[in-house]
Protein 1
Amino acid sequence: MDWVPTTAHWGAYQAASDGNGGVRVRPRADDPAPSPLLGNVPEIARHSTRVQRPAVRRGWLSGGPGPSSRRGKDEFVEVDWDTAFTLVAAQLDRVRHESGNEAIYGGSYGWGSAGRFHHAQSQLHRFLNTIGGYTASRNNYSFGTSQVLLPHVVGSSAAVLGYADSWATVREHTDLIVAFGGLPTKNLSISPGGVTRHTSAAAAADPGMAVASISPLADDVPAGGRWYSIEPGTDVAMQLALAHTLLTEDLHDADFLERCCTGFDVFADYLLGASDGVPKTPEWAAGICGVEASEIRELARRMAAGRTLVTVTWSLQRTRGGEQPVWAGIALAAMLGQIGLPGGGFGHGYGSMADVGDVGPVLWLPTLPQGSNPVRAFIPVARVADMLLNPGAEFDYDGQRLTYPDIRLVHWAGGNPFHHHQDLNRLRRAFARPETVVVHETHWTATARHADVVLPATTSLEREDLGAGRRDTHLTAMHRVLDPVGEARDDFSILAGLAERLGVRQRFTQGRSARGWVEHLYDRWREQLLTQGHDVPDFDTFWAAGELRLPEVPEDPPLKRFRRDPERERLHTPSGRIELFSAEVDSFGYDDCPGHPAWLPQERRGPLHLIANQPPTRLHGQGDVGALSRESKVAGREPITLHPDDAAARGITEGAVVRVFNERGACLAGARLSNRVRPGVVVLPTGAWFDPQPDPERPGQDLCVHGNPNALTEDVGASRLSQGCAGQRSHVDVELFPGPLPEVQVHAPPPLHPA
Ligand SMILES: Nc1nc2c(c(=O)[nH]1)N[C@H]1C(S)=C(S)[C@@H](COP(=O)(O)OP(=O)(O)OC[C@H]3O[C@@H](n4cnc5c(=O)[nH]c(N)nc54)[C@H](O)[C@@H]3O)O[C@H]1N2
Ligand SMILES: Nc1nc2c(c(=O)[nH]1)N[C@H]1C(S)=C(S)[C@@H](COP(=O)(O)OP(=O)(O)OC[C@H]3O[C@@H](n4cnc5c(=O)[nH]c(N)nc54)[C@H](O)[C@@H]3O)O[C@H]1N2
Ligand SMILES: [Mo]
């Protein structure tokens, strides 16, 4: 058996054919914390839900393109590639000529698979650019709120997100980590593109210093950390009270605030209550966030006594008003005066992703050129359902008034909006609006089931590529391990086939095969590194070795430079400094994002807080049919964790199937009881494949029988500033489900008919 190197978003590993068409996997010998998600790989590679052949929705095939509420409910007819190419190319051509390229939505958000060349979204963007462009999306679901806020506060989002101190630096210099959102190690096997060795996961599991972990869940607390159990959505109140204590006890660094910040006077007036009559005292905060005033005061004093890293997980900004905990965290770090010092200041995403705190160089990696998009229209990524439902409507975004384009054709490759988007019942109505929906998928996900044309894509085990993630240490030669399933093709060949029908094959492929492109991207990258004086082997040597250690590049992070010389190394903010009050944000006049960090109380609409966080057993929806994910299910449903008191009040026992519901929707889930969640809080992670079926008890309504929390979340932007994803939390109630229990159908392929 030949073990070959490969990588995935859950990290590099080794794979071998099992001799029967399947795959065996094992971690790298030098990985200090291999990902448990490896356990899903053998099953997902060859699962019955793999898409085998191109398939077309019956109603679209017989009735032609047009809006249809049958999407997601119709049958599929399998066709050959020739027919599929003809059908899709004809619609791309018709739509761009009748309505312009703006009528094609190609944002195509989603993680797809690791691999620098076969990155589905990049492939699609390059293809659509060769035929005149598309309506694009901006920012991401992960930290889209921060991507818009941070430029106003520190001049760029990279200043914070791109240059986190390594875990080694934190261990050496930091006395106390104050972690809003905790340091959940379950998240740290993941980084986009993969990480070669899981050093962050190993470090976060045992940081070797004091950690104050502020979260509604004990599982977010690392070994030896102290759990501050907080009411969800109230971190800003606690942060303001910590700041209030620093100010009133004269523990703040007035010199740093004077030298490196602007607007502290406005923020201080707000803390003291001079501007709104409410002093943000620990007693005030305790009544909101549930952490005792004495504990807040004592924590503030400890923070001022040594080197302190204030860190905020990305989850805290993935919600209504999500700008505020990030901005307040920066204000708190600024008051401590340690921004730009090793192991001090502000961190964002320790506990969210493997690459935050990882050791690899910030380096340009081999990248597929996408060409340029002449279409100006775009949306902030999480406004997709709004766009499809409201063509021509206006909306706010970062000080601009923008208009939703009128989309006729949706083309998606490498993403699962019926996993990632909020209020999936509303998304179904939105997906009924376009004339044609084309999806490239490896598996029969809910998104594939809502398409008109499904084109079967290979997985990375079935092709060759180069793999590395942000701040990774190695470039992996991703060898092919398996033959493609059925008639599956890689996204590049699918798009080359469409390009051929549209007369632009040569422009799209530049005459190269997939392997030719992999070598070409490597050679271009190597040439650039050689001119910078790095020693990089030729392609054949690299491919045979299976990996390449990335060269060390010296770095001088923007905030460290700035701290040394704030006059010469000005930040790209209007003042050139850290803005604790932003006159620009203030001038936009948004009630949901004022000019300084503020406590914005949220209306509570339901007796229980729902936390829809990242799943410990898979990557989003990827791997839901794998062994690790399936074994975690309760009665075949996604587990929901409740506090025993909340369960008892509802007659719910361990292992019972429950109905989780609110005014937007409902799903089933399997009850797990634990006092590691705060009373009043339930946790239902994302990623159980959406399986809407008619609700036996509520005629006319759908019930996701499997447990996808996005049946319940609200489809709103974080604020008018960022329009970021707000899916992390919602309000729900839970009741016993009396049965009879509907079967989960989404883990089997839909009925497929011959043409
Ligand atoms: N309620 C709630 N919702 C959330 C979040 C939350 O906290 N709460 N988190 C959000 C976040 S941070 C994110 S990043 C999103 C993630 O949302 P997505 O990135 O959309 O989720 P994935 O399941 O990774 O979807 C990727 C899809 O690509 C397919 N795929 C894999 N490889 C290939 C390939 O080579 N070619 C093609 N064509 N397809 C391929 C996979 O089968 C999979 O269906 O979810 C968001 N949704
Ligand atoms: N295993 C696994 N790991 C992943 C992913 C995955 O799908 N699976 N996805 C990856 C991706 S794409 C991303 S963007 C990152 C996301 O990284 P994050 O967004 O940071 O991760 P989450 O797990 O959604 O949330 C982290 C914790 O925040 C806590 N939290 C929620 N609301 C509140 C609150 O109001 N206050 C406080 N103090 N805490 C709160 C929850 O208890 C939760 O466990 O994760 C990455 N890592
Ligand atoms: Mo994400």
Protein 2
Amino acid sequence: MEYSHRSRLLLVCSVLVLCLVTQGARCDELTSDFYDWSCPGVYDVVQQQVFAAMREEPRMGASLLRLHFHDCFVNGCDGSILLDGADGEKFALPNQNSVRGYEVIDAIKADLENMCPGVVSCADIVALAAGYGVLFSGGPYYDVLLGRRDGLKANQSGADNGLPSPFEPISSIVQKFTDVGLDTKDVVVLSGAHTIGRARCVLFSDRLTSTKSSADPTLDATMAANLQKLCTGGDGNQTAALDVSSADVFDKQYYHNLLSKKGLLTSDQGLFSADEDVVASTTKALVQTYSDDGEQFFSDFGASMVKMGSIPLPAGSAGEIRCNCRVPNKK
Ligand code: HEM
Ligand SMILES: *[C@@H]1O[C@H](CO)[C@@H](O)[C@H](O)[C@H]1NC(C)=O
Ligand SMILES: *[C@@H]1O[C@H](CO)[C@@H](O)[C@H](O)[C@H]1NC(C)=O
């Protein structure tokens, strides 16, 4: 016990020295033990807050997962989506009246500022909260890597242009993933996040219509009728489960739904039903694999989350540890 404690201390010291010596290369590698010395309670705090929020509302697990995705795709995983202010990312089209969970992050940050002030970045809180959101929904455990720094400003146009839309073709969604260092497989694996959570009618009602000629032929007719009932006459804010068969459970059912035309968004069903080309045959084969093999899905999902969680800040941006997740620190 005593021995291993001392050798770990030695290791931490030498890592610090190494960073000082090699100042050119910044010490920005993410690690799973980043706060083991500076704030070992971080796991308990995030876990308790996410658990409490999901007991109130199970959907919050999904919302926190999406928050992390929308953070990482714009200027890297830097907590920039959390920044308030008129030109914030949270007011970009894909986020406004859509992304949820900001209050949960605030509550976690408040606890952590009491426990170890100025230590844990908002971006790391979001990454960890997403991990527990997946886990408490019944999904896989994966080691969340930590050590991110918070960005100094938001990038609203980056959010408008960089985040995928459910209305665009799969090939163009793949391009957006490629732009941040992810690939076609990551698109299929991470779309499996839609095994939990909800989407608003405005985002899929173009697939519905009473006139059979223009209804989406890749949407199951009974499911279409039910969605039509839900969406008709509302303001577009009514929500349907992204996974019609197990809305709040993180499982492989999302892929199984796609085999029977029960994906909710055009971009979900397109992974299985798009016209054959190179990309479509790749995504279709992967959908088939994951609909069969939940263990493969779980382990690939963890790996792709770690990959997505490692999208870096733009070159030259050093970041900071924000004190309040909604505003940059005063200089
Ligand atoms: C592949 C491209 C993707 C598209 C086009 C897409 C699109 C969408 C849309 C339109 C919604 C509903 C938003 C609303 O109702 O306002 C949604 C919800 C959601 N998305 Fe995605 N998404 C994609 C990928 C991802 C990824 C990579 C993740 C996470 C790893 C993710 C996680 C979620 C979750 C969990 C929800 C439900 C959120 C909640 O209920 O609060 N999505 N997505
Ligand atoms: C905003 O995001 C876009 C697209 O991701 C990127 O090209 C641009 O450099 C970013 N702008 C700033 C100021 O970071
Ligand atoms: C949906 O709700 C938001 C926020 O409550 C509101 O601003 C918006 O107008 C609603 N959407 C429609 C189509 O009415």
Protein 3
Amino acid sequence: MVVRDPVCGVPIDPEKAEFKTEIRGRTYYFCSDHCRQIFLERSYIAFFSMEVGIKSEIPTYSGGLGVLAGDTIRSSADLKIPLVAVTLVSRKGYLKQEITEDGDQIEHPDEWDPSEFMDLMPVQVSVRIGGRDVKVQSWLYEHQSMTGGVVSVIFLDTNVEGNSSEDRAITDYLYGGDERYRLKQEIVLGIGGIRMLKALDFNLRKYHMNEGHSSLLTLELMNWNGMNPDKVRDLCIFTTHTPVEAAFDKFSYDLVEELLADEFAIEVLKEQGGRDRLNMTLLALNLSKYINGVTKAHMEFSRKLFPGHHIWAITNGVHSYMWTCKYFRELFDKYIPGWVNEPELLVRVEGIPNDETWDAHLKAKKDLIDFVNEKTGIDMDLETLTIGFARRATAYKRATLIFSDLERLREINKKGRIQLIFAGKAHPKDLLGKSLIKKIYHYKEYLKGEIKIAYLENYNIEMAAKLTSGVDVWLNTPLPPFEASGTSGMKAAHNGVVNFSVLDGWWVEGCIEGVTGWAIGPSPHEQMSEEERRARELKDLYNKLEYIVIPTYYRKRDAWIELMENSIGKVAYYFNSHRMMRRYVTEAYML
Ligand SMILES: *Cc1c(COP(=O)(O)O)cnc(C)c1O
């Protein structure tokens, strides 16, 4: 067996290795004492995220934020960026989704056993929450890259002997419970997380907060740095992921006082986190030197939302290898060798013969259609133009927009057949989100015999990979400006699946009309009333579907393949997490 030096990536035979070290229960092998020293002495970027999506079997994510954290970890390992990630163990996951025949969502716990995937660390830390010491233990998952790079992921866990049963449950449900439960989780993530990293002997240089949930870590940094906010700011990076003020976590100071007063002076906290209520986003903004939005449009919007803070943009990306299906991986390996660690090489897509691109797509499509037919009994077929829409079921994503004018949709379907595949979970408390699922079930019945529609249960990472590689068109219809980025369309592009999307989030940067896909509605920079914007969106959605998408798909196959190849060469080559992480390193981490 050959392993790789985690610092320089040189292959090593462990049997003969002269230089090695044991740390946190693992043995690492090095080519030289030099690499070993670097490994032992280097300081890490601590990346904090409430959710992390590594794989479907570890259900500690709910959507794009967690999957992005997973891609951050994967690309950091590939690029050998010294990064360590911290999250909650969420032993009961987010939720397992069942949908009844009537389209009602039923949620079940998504229990998993961390000991199957990771190692319990022998150290514990404690945080005072509501007048009690809460013990926190951690599980170490090590993500290994083919390049030799490794990223450790620390899963914090309060299910420790000696904790009260209430405290043991703090790390059970991702985004579960009430406000009080959420604040306890955020105390564990921020303060418990930073203490755990110290206890595990990670030498740290920067703290990156992926969304505001972890911003209480700044309080511990204040304590460590003589209550000097300037010093704390120099250490912190904050990435905001939503343009919706209402989505920021806010807590009443009564609750904060009750739970957190033993850890930190509430008066000092108010200076940074807001006078009336503790606003986690504000806390992160006030105590971070580098702040960024996740697309250029989101940056512009955030600048308006947070005057007085300088906000940069690092546009999101997805992990190229992870999100490319096996048929396209083979094709890229053959014609674009090296693409895995240099996804920018995908710009050289012209070298791939058109028939091979089409063939790879048909294979991925067949896998998906077989999967859908098996799961739902709906008899979808390989020839029909297949449109996919899968993401969290929540109001602003507007999953039902395509059903706005059912008669028009039926007429369009007579010109060229379409079939639609949906998936997505609603948060248990998101009644509007749930009603969207129910509505799609209703339309499915209404259009029976004309348009085949499937709603797949329990959307997760594995299903996302199947869907974003197996459909022909990836539909995205959020209400602008609420989609800060969106990433599933980037996964689609890696597989030659063509994007048809509202100009919001990443698509403002990715869309070249008629070249990389199509826009639904006007550019955010065009001035008009909201009413007119809604009308333009519907007009584009139906007109482009009828007069461009369907005719091109059925009658101009070469033009279609050109769109597919442009999705790879002009979208995927840029919207990947290798490019994203290189930018975090040079623009945020080295600061
Ligand atoms: C990529 C991904 C998302 C994000 O999808 P968007 O369309 O960008 O919101 C959500 N959930 C899962 C499981 C994903 O893989």
